[in-house]
Amino acid sequence: MIRRVMFLFLLVAMLVARPSKAGSPILYFCTFTSGNTNVYAADAAGVVTPFATVPDGNALAFDNFGILYNSNYSANSVSKITPAGQVSTFISGTTKPYGLAFDKDNNMYIANSTGATTITKVTPAGVPSTFATGMVSPECLAFDLNGNLFVSSPFTSDIRKIQPNGTVSVFKSGLNDVFGLAFDSKGDLYVGFSFANNTGRIDKIAPDGTITPFVPVTGAMLRPYEIKFALDGNLYVAGYPLNGGIGKISKVTPNGTVSDFVTGYTNLTGIAAPEPASLSILGLAAIGVLNRRRRITSR
Fold first, then answer.
1. Which of 103, 132, 218, 270 has its CA at 20 to 30 Å from residue 261's CA atom?
2. pLDDT number for residue 299
3. Residue ranges of the chain with pLDDT lower than 70?
4. First-to-final CA distance of the chain
5. pTM here?
6. CATH of 46-297, one of 3.40.50.150, 2.60.40.10, 3.40.50.300, 2.120.10.30
7. What is the C-alpha separation between 142 and 151, in angstroms, rounded?
8. Is the dihedral of CA 214, 152, 199, 195 positive or negative?
9. 235-239 and 246-252 beta bridge pairing
């Protein structure tokens, strides 16, 4: 029994760790303009193909089942995009939505930005509720390994931590121009800083709050908006020029080396990377299958 479970865990881990096939998308991104805009898919070589058209491209996030969602800032809504690129409205009535994130139960969290003060929680069935208040124009969202939601707030120069019960605290303050957030598999938080001169930097913050530089200010990277880790282990940075213009996506290797990944797209803001299925969920499912087989064979 134990050997079978260990084998299944190992098998799942090997499948998750496999490199993406050539041509398979590792990253999705969108552009921001008034009116219909495009969501694109990019493979490991940086080859880009159109994927979907949305009302108002902004931030992107995948749910736990591989469905992509897009926040429509000007339309005050969130779109759902199927793997086939079909778009529908998932929820409306939000307030200038930007950052999106999903918890382990597949609930969506929305940062109501630009003058708003709340984080909205939406169930998989599309039922909204207020999850947290007291924000000041929250922007980007990211969950840590313990289910705490982290929120960047450029207007108050801090990162807020929201516990699963909705309790809000300041995780780190004094962070001028803070924006993009992303956690690595070890639980370290990576933070993008967007400066007015179209440059930026990325710092790494340990769970105890210790900050270390990761990518210094460099001409190779535009001011970071959203930042996301992809399955290849690299960090991808959506560089959005101040006041609009031609943006680019930078690839940052684990040792901090920066290179261009995608260039030439106007007002490039949101990015999202497909995530592997949860090993814990698959492991529990495997145990359940083995238990059922054991009960059947024991009859």
1. 103
2. 44
3. 1-22, 34-35, 276-299
4. 17
5. 0.85
6. 2.120.10.30
7. 7
8. negative
9. antiparallel
Contacts 24+ apart (CB under 8 A), 107-114: 108/61, 108/63, 108/69, 108/78, 109/141, 109/149, 110/71, 110/78, 111/135, 111/138, 111/139, 111/140, 111/141, 111/151, 112/138, 113/73, 113/137, 113/138, 113/139, 114/73
Residues 99 and 58: their CA atoms lie apart, in Å, by: 9
Structure tokens at 128: 């909204």
> Smallest Cα–Cα separation from 63: which of 150, 15, 124, 13?
124
State both tokens at 110: 């929305």
Closest CA to 60 of 94, 16, 112, 110: 110
List the structure tokens of 194: 């967007």
Q: What local confidence, expressed as pLDDT, does residue 244 receive?
A: 75
Of 87, 186, 194, 188, residue with least CA distance to 139: 194
What is the per-residue pLDDT across 49-104, written as a single tens digit (0 to 9) for each?
999 999 888 899 999 999 999 999 989 999 999 999 999 999 999 999 999 999 99
**C-beta neighbour count of 286 within 10 angstroms:** 18
> For 267, how many CA atoms within 13 A lie in the half-sphere containing its CB?
13
Task: Please report, for the chain, the start and end positions of each structural domain, with discontinuous segments joined by +.
Answer: 46-297
